[in-house]
Amino acid sequence: SVLYKTLAKGLRSQGADVTVISQQDCDIKGVKSITLPPEKDPFRYADLVSESIKSNSFDIVECSSWRFELLTFLKSPHRTTKAIVRCDPTTHTLFGAGHPYVAAEKATIKHADFRVAVSQFAKRDVQSAYGIAVDDVIFNGIELSEFDNLKDWTWTLFLEAIPEIEVPTKDETVVVWVGKPTRMKGFDIFQEIVARAPRSVKFYAVVGPVPNPLPWNSASEKKIQILTELPRPLYLALLSLADVGLITSRWEGFSYVCAEMLVGNLPVLCNRSCEVVREFNSSSIQFFDSDLSGALEEPSLWQTLAKKKRSKSFANLSSERMARRTMEIYKRCLEQ
Predict the structure, then answer these.
(1) What does residue 18 show for φ and ψ, rounded to 5 degrees?
(2) For residue 61, what are the β-bridge partners?
(3) With b meaning 16 or more CB within 10 Å and e meaning fewer, what string describes 281-307?
(4) What are the backbone angles phi and psi of residue 305, rounded to the nearest 5°?
(5) Which secondary structure element, helix H or strand E, spans residue 34, and what is its range?
(6) Full-model pTM
(7) 81 pLDDT band (50/70/90 cuts)?
(8) Most confidently modeled range among 44-53, 150-159, 313-322
(9) Following CA atoms 275, 137, 327, 49 in sequence, which dihedral angle do they give, to the nearest 10 degrees?
(10) Which helix (H) or strand (E) holds 94?
(11) Given a cut of 80, is residue 52 above it in pLDDT?
(12) CA–CA separation, 272 and 254 (whole Å)
Protein backbone atom coordinates (compact mmCIF):
# COMPACT_ATOMS: atom_id res chain seq x y z
CA SER A 1 0.00 0.00 0.00
CA VAL A 2 1.01 3.65 -0.37
CA LEU A 3 1.01 3.98 3.42
CA TYR A 4 3.42 1.16 4.16
CA LYS A 5 5.79 1.91 1.28
CA THR A 6 5.99 5.49 2.51
CA LEU A 7 6.36 4.36 6.12
CA ALA A 8 9.11 1.87 5.24
CA LYS A 9 11.12 4.60 3.50
CA GLY A 10 10.61 6.95 6.41
CA LEU A 11 11.60 4.42 9.06
CA ARG A 12 14.73 3.55 7.09
CA SER A 13 15.66 7.24 6.97
CA GLN A 14 15.25 7.29 10.76
CA GLY A 15 17.90 4.56 11.03
CA ALA A 16 15.66 1.53 11.49
CA ASP A 17 16.43 -1.86 9.95
CA VAL A 18 13.20 -2.42 8.01
CA THR A 19 11.76 -5.58 6.46
CA VAL A 20 8.50 -5.58 4.50
CA ILE A 21 6.50 -8.82 4.41
CA SER A 22 4.06 -8.74 1.52
CA GLN A 23 2.57 -10.65 -1.39
CA GLN A 24 4.00 -7.99 -3.71
CA ASP A 25 7.61 -7.26 -4.53
CA CYS A 26 8.89 -4.30 -2.53
CA ASP A 27 11.67 -2.46 -4.30
CA ILE A 28 12.69 0.22 -1.81
CA LYS A 29 16.33 1.17 -1.42
CA GLY A 30 17.75 -0.03 1.88
CA VAL A 31 14.59 -1.95 2.83
CA LYS A 32 14.57 -5.75 2.97
CA SER A 33 11.68 -7.64 1.47
CA ILE A 34 10.04 -11.01 2.11
CA THR A 35 7.60 -11.88 -0.67
CA LEU A 36 4.95 -14.42 0.28
CA PRO A 37 3.03 -16.53 -2.24
CA PRO A 38 -0.37 -15.21 -3.39
CA GLU A 39 -3.12 -16.08 -0.92
CA LYS A 40 -6.66 -14.69 -1.09
CA ASP A 41 -7.83 -16.20 2.20
CA PRO A 42 -6.83 -13.63 4.89
CA PHE A 43 -6.81 -16.29 7.63
CA ARG A 44 -4.40 -18.48 5.72
CA TYR A 45 -2.35 -15.41 4.83
CA ALA A 46 -2.10 -14.56 8.54
CA ASP A 47 -0.66 -18.06 9.05
CA LEU A 48 1.97 -17.41 6.37
CA VAL A 49 2.88 -14.07 7.94
CA SER A 50 3.27 -15.72 11.36
CA GLU A 51 5.56 -18.40 9.93
CA SER A 52 7.67 -15.73 8.26
CA ILE A 53 8.00 -13.66 11.45
CA LYS A 54 9.02 -16.72 13.48
CA SER A 55 11.70 -17.57 10.88
CA ASN A 56 13.33 -14.19 11.41
CA SER A 57 14.44 -12.02 14.31
CA PHE A 58 12.45 -8.81 14.70
CA ASP A 59 12.18 -6.47 17.67
CA ILE A 60 8.79 -5.20 16.61
CA VAL A 61 6.19 -5.99 13.96
CA GLU A 62 3.30 -3.92 12.64
CA CYS A 63 0.25 -4.39 10.47
CA SER A 64 -2.93 -2.57 9.56
CA SER A 65 -6.13 -3.63 11.29
CA TRP A 66 -7.55 -4.16 7.80
CA ARG A 67 -7.18 -7.87 6.90
CA PHE A 68 -5.58 -8.61 10.31
CA GLU A 69 -2.24 -10.00 9.02
CA LEU A 70 -0.84 -10.45 12.55
CA LEU A 71 -3.82 -12.45 13.87
CA THR A 72 -2.07 -15.84 14.00
CA PHE A 73 1.19 -14.41 15.34
CA LEU A 74 -0.57 -12.53 18.13
CA LYS A 75 -2.12 -15.78 19.31
CA SER A 76 1.31 -17.42 19.60
CA PRO A 77 2.09 -18.48 23.17
CA HIS A 78 5.15 -16.93 24.83
CA ARG A 79 5.84 -14.50 21.97
CA THR A 80 8.47 -11.89 22.80
CA THR A 81 8.34 -9.75 19.64
CA LYS A 82 6.26 -6.64 20.26
CA ALA A 83 3.33 -5.98 17.94
CA ILE A 84 1.62 -2.76 16.87
CA VAL A 85 -1.65 -2.49 14.95
CA ARG A 86 -2.38 0.65 12.93
CA CYS A 87 -6.15 1.06 13.02
CA ASP A 88 -8.49 2.10 10.23
CA PRO A 89 -12.27 2.38 10.70
CA THR A 90 -13.61 -1.03 11.64
CA THR A 91 -15.11 -3.74 9.48
CA HIS A 92 -17.94 -3.71 12.04
CA THR A 93 -18.82 -0.13 11.10
CA LEU A 94 -18.21 -0.42 7.36
CA PHE A 95 -19.93 -3.76 6.73
CA GLY A 96 -21.94 -4.64 9.84
CA ALA A 97 -21.53 -6.80 12.93
CA GLY A 98 -22.25 -10.00 11.01
CA HIS A 99 -19.30 -9.67 8.63
CA PRO A 100 -17.01 -12.75 8.83
CA TYR A 101 -13.88 -10.63 9.45
CA VAL A 102 -15.20 -8.72 12.48
CA ALA A 103 -14.09 -11.20 15.17
CA ALA A 104 -10.61 -11.60 13.64
CA GLU A 105 -10.11 -7.87 13.31
CA LYS A 106 -11.24 -7.26 16.89
CA ALA A 107 -8.93 -9.98 18.22
CA THR A 108 -5.96 -8.56 16.30
CA ILE A 109 -6.53 -5.08 17.70
CA LYS A 110 -7.17 -6.40 21.22
CA HIS A 111 -4.02 -8.53 21.46
CA ALA A 112 -1.61 -5.94 20.04
CA ASP A 113 0.87 -4.41 22.47
CA PHE A 114 0.16 -0.93 21.14
CA ARG A 115 -2.62 0.51 19.00
CA VAL A 116 -2.29 3.54 16.73
CA ALA A 117 -5.12 5.04 14.68
CA VAL A 118 -4.70 6.85 11.36
CA SER A 119 -7.14 9.59 12.44
CA GLN A 120 -9.24 10.72 15.39
CA PHE A 121 -12.25 9.41 13.46
CA ALA A 122 -10.68 5.93 13.24
CA LYS A 123 -9.75 6.04 16.93
CA ARG A 124 -13.32 6.89 17.96
CA ASP A 125 -14.68 4.17 15.73
CA VAL A 126 -12.45 1.40 17.12
CA GLN A 127 -13.23 2.42 20.69
CA SER A 128 -16.96 2.62 19.99
CA ALA A 129 -17.31 -0.57 17.90
CA TYR A 130 -14.97 -2.84 19.88
CA GLY A 131 -14.57 -1.16 23.28
CA ILE A 132 -10.78 -1.27 22.90
CA ALA A 133 -8.65 1.74 23.86
CA VAL A 134 -6.43 3.19 21.15
CA ASP A 135 -3.14 4.55 22.45
CA ASP A 136 -2.33 7.27 19.93
CA VAL A 137 -3.15 8.86 16.56
CA ILE A 138 -0.65 9.33 13.74
CA PHE A 139 -1.79 10.81 10.45
CA ASN A 140 -0.74 8.91 7.35
CA GLY A 141 2.20 10.70 5.76
CA ILE A 142 2.79 12.05 2.28
CA GLU A 143 6.17 12.48 0.62
CA LEU A 144 5.96 16.24 0.15
CA SER A 145 8.99 16.26 -2.16
CA GLU A 146 6.90 14.49 -4.83
CA PHE A 147 4.99 17.75 -5.29
CA ASP A 148 8.03 20.01 -5.69
CA ASN A 149 8.40 20.01 -9.48
CA LEU A 150 4.82 19.88 -10.72
CA LYS A 151 4.66 23.47 -11.95
CA ASP A 152 6.42 22.48 -15.17
CA TRP A 153 3.48 20.36 -16.31
CA THR A 154 1.17 21.65 -19.04
CA TRP A 155 -1.82 20.10 -20.77
CA THR A 156 0.33 19.82 -23.88
CA LEU A 157 2.82 17.61 -22.04
CA PHE A 158 -0.04 15.62 -20.48
CA LEU A 159 -1.52 15.04 -23.94
CA GLU A 160 1.84 13.77 -25.18
CA ALA A 161 1.83 11.19 -22.38
CA ILE A 162 -1.83 10.20 -22.93
CA PRO A 163 -2.68 11.04 -26.58
CA GLU A 164 -6.27 9.78 -26.32
CA ILE A 165 -7.26 12.23 -23.59
CA GLU A 166 -9.41 15.27 -24.32
CA VAL A 167 -7.85 18.40 -22.87
CA PRO A 168 -9.95 21.26 -21.48
CA THR A 169 -10.45 24.62 -23.08
CA LYS A 170 -9.16 27.70 -21.27
CA ASP A 171 -12.72 28.59 -20.20
CA GLU A 172 -13.52 25.23 -18.59
CA THR A 173 -13.15 24.53 -14.87
CA VAL A 174 -11.25 21.25 -14.43
CA VAL A 175 -12.45 18.98 -11.62
CA VAL A 176 -10.63 15.78 -10.68
CA TRP A 177 -12.16 12.82 -8.80
CA VAL A 178 -10.12 9.84 -7.61
CA GLY A 179 -11.48 6.58 -6.28
CA LYS A 180 -13.13 3.24 -6.89
CA PRO A 181 -16.69 2.79 -8.15
CA THR A 182 -18.15 1.89 -4.75
CA ARG A 183 -20.82 3.24 -2.44
CA MET A 184 -18.22 4.06 0.22
CA LYS A 185 -16.39 6.32 -2.26
CA GLY A 186 -19.70 7.93 -3.21
CA PHE A 187 -19.44 6.89 -6.84
CA ASP A 188 -23.20 7.29 -7.21
CA ILE A 189 -22.96 10.82 -5.74
CA PHE A 190 -20.11 11.63 -8.11
CA GLN A 191 -22.18 10.65 -11.13
CA GLU A 192 -25.13 12.73 -9.92
CA ILE A 193 -22.86 15.77 -9.50
CA VAL A 194 -21.51 15.24 -13.02
CA ALA A 195 -25.04 15.02 -14.39
CA ARG A 196 -26.03 18.29 -12.70
CA ALA A 197 -22.87 20.31 -13.31
CA PRO A 198 -22.84 22.92 -16.10
CA ARG A 199 -21.11 22.30 -19.42
CA SER A 200 -18.34 24.67 -18.38
CA VAL A 201 -17.08 22.07 -15.88
CA LYS A 202 -14.85 19.28 -17.21
CA PHE A 203 -14.43 16.16 -15.07
CA TYR A 204 -11.44 13.82 -14.97
CA ALA A 205 -11.90 10.57 -13.03
CA VAL A 206 -8.97 8.41 -11.93
CA VAL A 207 -10.78 5.13 -11.38
CA GLY A 208 -9.34 2.10 -9.58
CA PRO A 209 -10.40 -1.53 -10.08
CA VAL A 210 -12.77 -3.21 -7.62
CA PRO A 211 -14.86 -6.41 -7.58
CA ASN A 212 -18.58 -5.79 -8.19
CA PRO A 213 -18.31 -2.07 -9.05
CA LEU A 214 -21.32 0.21 -9.10
CA PRO A 215 -22.52 0.70 -12.66
CA TRP A 216 -21.80 3.73 -14.78
CA ASN A 217 -24.66 6.02 -15.64
CA SER A 218 -24.40 6.34 -19.41
CA ALA A 219 -25.33 10.02 -19.37
CA SER A 220 -22.69 11.01 -16.82
CA GLU A 221 -20.07 8.67 -18.27
CA LYS A 222 -20.11 10.63 -21.54
CA LYS A 223 -19.21 13.82 -19.64
CA ILE A 224 -16.16 12.34 -17.89
CA GLN A 225 -12.60 11.78 -19.03
CA ILE A 226 -11.95 8.36 -17.46
CA LEU A 227 -8.37 7.40 -16.58
CA THR A 228 -7.42 3.93 -15.32
CA GLU A 229 -4.07 2.60 -14.18
CA LEU A 230 -2.60 6.10 -14.27
CA PRO A 231 1.13 6.09 -13.35
CA ARG A 232 1.81 8.09 -10.22
CA PRO A 233 3.83 10.87 -11.95
CA LEU A 234 0.88 11.48 -14.30
CA TYR A 235 -1.59 11.32 -11.41
CA LEU A 236 0.35 14.03 -9.57
CA ALA A 237 0.59 16.02 -12.79
CA LEU A 238 -3.20 15.86 -13.16
CA LEU A 239 -3.62 17.25 -9.64
CA SER A 240 -1.33 20.13 -10.54
CA LEU A 241 -3.31 20.91 -13.71
CA ALA A 242 -6.79 20.70 -12.17
CA ASP A 243 -8.74 23.62 -10.68
CA VAL A 244 -10.82 21.74 -8.08
CA GLY A 245 -10.61 18.39 -6.29
CA LEU A 246 -13.81 16.47 -5.56
CA ILE A 247 -14.30 14.06 -2.63
CA THR A 248 -17.67 12.29 -2.62
CA SER A 249 -16.81 9.57 -0.07
CA ARG A 250 -19.43 8.85 2.56
CA TRP A 251 -16.62 7.95 4.97
CA GLU A 252 -12.85 7.48 5.00
CA GLY A 253 -10.36 6.37 7.62
CA PHE A 254 -7.93 9.09 6.56
CA SER A 255 -8.50 10.11 2.89
CA TYR A 256 -5.09 10.03 1.24
CA VAL A 257 -6.70 11.49 -1.87
CA CYS A 258 -7.99 14.59 -0.07
CA ALA A 259 -4.61 15.06 1.62
CA GLU A 260 -2.79 14.77 -1.71
CA MET A 261 -5.16 17.24 -3.33
CA LEU A 262 -4.48 19.75 -0.57
CA VAL A 263 -0.73 19.24 -0.78
CA GLY A 264 -1.07 19.57 -4.56
CA ASN A 265 -2.49 23.05 -3.93
CA LEU A 266 -6.07 22.22 -4.92
CA PRO A 267 -9.21 23.59 -3.27
CA VAL A 268 -11.41 20.59 -2.47
CA LEU A 269 -15.19 20.14 -2.54
CA CYS A 270 -16.03 17.42 0.01
CA ASN A 271 -19.06 15.41 1.04
CA ARG A 272 -20.08 16.78 4.45
CA SER A 273 -20.69 13.25 5.76
CA CYS A 274 -16.99 12.36 5.34
CA GLU A 275 -16.01 13.44 8.85
CA VAL A 276 -12.29 12.75 8.72
CA VAL A 277 -11.42 15.53 6.27
CA ARG A 278 -12.27 18.10 8.96
CA GLU A 279 -9.16 16.91 10.78
CA PHE A 280 -7.01 18.47 8.05
CA ASN A 281 -8.25 21.84 9.36
CA SER A 282 -7.84 23.40 5.94
CA SER A 283 -9.42 26.58 4.65
CA SER A 284 -9.16 25.05 1.16
CA ILE A 285 -12.03 22.63 1.87
CA GLN A 286 -15.65 23.45 1.11
CA PHE A 287 -18.49 21.04 1.88
CA PHE A 288 -21.61 19.94 0.09
CA ASP A 289 -24.53 18.05 1.64
CA SER A 290 -24.95 14.42 0.63
CA ASP A 291 -28.50 15.17 -0.55
CA LEU A 292 -26.83 17.46 -3.12
CA SER A 293 -28.82 20.50 -2.14
CA GLY A 294 -27.06 23.61 -3.40
CA ALA A 295 -26.19 25.38 -6.61
CA LEU A 296 -24.21 22.60 -8.31
CA GLU A 297 -25.70 23.63 -11.65
CA GLU A 298 -24.29 27.17 -11.40
CA PRO A 299 -20.96 27.84 -13.14
CA SER A 300 -20.22 30.49 -10.50
CA LEU A 301 -20.01 27.82 -7.77
CA TRP A 302 -17.20 26.02 -9.57
CA GLN A 303 -15.46 29.23 -10.62
CA THR A 304 -15.49 30.50 -7.03
CA LEU A 305 -14.13 27.18 -5.80
CA ALA A 306 -11.28 27.32 -8.30
CA LYS A 307 -10.28 30.72 -6.91
CA LYS A 308 -10.55 29.64 -3.27
CA LYS A 309 -7.58 30.35 -1.01
CA ARG A 310 -5.11 27.46 -1.05
CA SER A 311 -3.53 25.88 2.03
CA LYS A 312 0.24 26.30 2.37
CA SER A 313 1.30 24.45 5.52
CA PHE A 314 1.38 20.65 5.42
CA ALA A 315 3.88 19.70 8.11
CA ASN A 316 1.26 17.55 9.88
CA LEU A 317 0.85 15.51 6.67
CA SER A 318 4.53 14.85 5.96
CA SER A 319 5.95 11.33 5.75
CA GLU A 320 8.90 12.52 7.86
CA ARG A 321 6.54 13.37 10.72
CA MET A 322 4.75 10.03 10.39
CA ALA A 323 8.04 8.11 10.52
CA ARG A 324 9.39 10.13 13.45
CA ARG A 325 6.19 9.70 15.48
CA THR A 326 6.13 5.99 14.63
CA MET A 327 9.70 5.54 15.86
CA GLU A 328 8.71 7.24 19.11
CA ILE A 329 5.85 4.77 19.48
CA TYR A 330 8.15 1.82 18.75
CA LYS A 331 10.56 2.93 21.47
CA ARG A 332 7.72 3.36 23.96
CA CYS A 333 6.41 -0.07 23.10
CA LEU A 334 9.82 -1.74 23.48
CA GLU A 335 10.36 -0.08 26.87
CA GLN A 336 7.11 -1.47 28.30
Answers:
(1) -110, 135
(2) 83
(3) ebebbebbeeeeeeebeebebbeebbe
(4) -60, -45
(5) strand 32-35
(6) 0.90
(7) very high
(8) 44-53
(9) -80
(10) helix 91-95
(11) yes
(12) 15
